[in-house]
Amino acid sequence: MIHCSSVAQNIRDRQFTYFYFANTADISSFPQTRCYNATAHRGIVMLHRVVVLLIGLFTATSLSGCATWVNIPPHAGDAAIHDPNEETVRHVEVAALRAALADKPADQDVQIVLPPGTLPLTYDTILPRISPSAMWSSRGISEGMTVVEVKEIRIRGSQAAVDVIRPWDYKVPESGRQLMTVDMGWDPVSKWQVKRVVSWHTSVEKALQKRPNGPVEIQR
Questions:
Q1: H/E element holding 57?
Q2: What is the pLDDT, as a whole number, of residue 162?
Q3: Is the Cβ–Cβ distance between 67 and 159 less than 8 Å?
Q4: 200/218 Cα distance (integer angstroms)
Q5: Is CB count within 10 Å lower at the N or C end of the chain?
Q6: In the prediction, which pLDDT does 61 show?
Q7: Are the C-beta atoms of 190 and 52 separated by less than 8 Å?
Q8: CB distance 96 to 154 below 8 Å
Q9: Which residues are within 8 A (CB) of 75 and not within 5 positions of it... i.e. 6 or more apart?
Q10: Can you say whether residue 63 is alpha, beta or left, with left for phi > 0 and alpha for psi between -120 and 50 degrees?
Q11: How far is 101 from 109, CA to CA, in rounded Å?
């Protein structure tokens, strides 16, 4: 407890900026009145807010996997992350491939092809989370298999877009390939969730030229 008589002396000596007195009566008649340093109190409140903000930012970044800017494959001259085995990349791939298979279900085994540089451990981690029919081969694309390929990945903080190439018709291999773009967002509760799936009704080459370089609104 601070004695208000000494506080009054400190005020006269200008050792403190100003004080809030719990009792507004003449402090000389209440020598035991409790006093608070209002400047220090405000400083503690501001420090608390800063700490909470930093914890929130750290938590959001940590839970989302720490990869806030990803281009796979790399864009010319960029400084983004390009590692296809990074944790956030794996989460985004799982969400995108689930959406691709849900949008156009396959009643047979599907060979999943992930970006170049993907390690066998990454395949083994991802595939069980996608579908029981999902498989991969270390020897490349198997003849006669239905192939679903992750072509490009773009992550911008809590937003992501993944380009997936799949057959126009799973049962007709000669039907050609189709590009679909999966847009998704991240939040602390639901993690990576698909917001929209765009199926491009043109050739894969033309679709890759038309779609944006980031997870933004797509004009078809």
A1: helix 38-63
A2: 96
A3: no
A4: 11
A5: N
A6: 46
A7: no
A8: no
A9: 213
A10: alpha
A11: 11
β-bridge partners, 70: 81, 155
What is the predicted pLDDT for the residue at 35? 45
Token pair recorded at residue 1: 């407890």
Tokens representing 145 are 């298999």
Closest to 196 in 3D by CA, of 167, 220, 179, 217: 217
Examine residue 132 and say whether the peptide bond preceding it is cis (omega within 30 degrees of 0): no
Residue type, 153: I
DSSP 118-175: --HHHHHHHHHHH-TTEE--TTSSPTT-EEEEEEEEEEETTEEEEEEEEES-TT-GGG
Query: Mean pLDDT, to the nearest integer, of 41-66?
Result: 52
Six-digit token string for 208: 């890759």
Gap between the Cα atoms of 73 and 121, Å rounded: 20
Segment 102-127, tens digit of pLDDT = 988 888 899 999 999 999 999 999 99
Question: Does pTM top 0.70 for this prediction?
Answer: no
Task: Indicate the pLDDT class of residue 195, thresholds 50, 70 and 90.
Answer: very high
- Residue the block writes with tokens 């498989």: 135
- Residues 6 or more apart from 154 whose CB is under 8 A from it? 70, 71, 72, 160, 161, 162, 213, 214, 215
Residues 6+ apart with CB under 8 A from 4: 21, 27, 28, 30, 31, 32, 33, 35
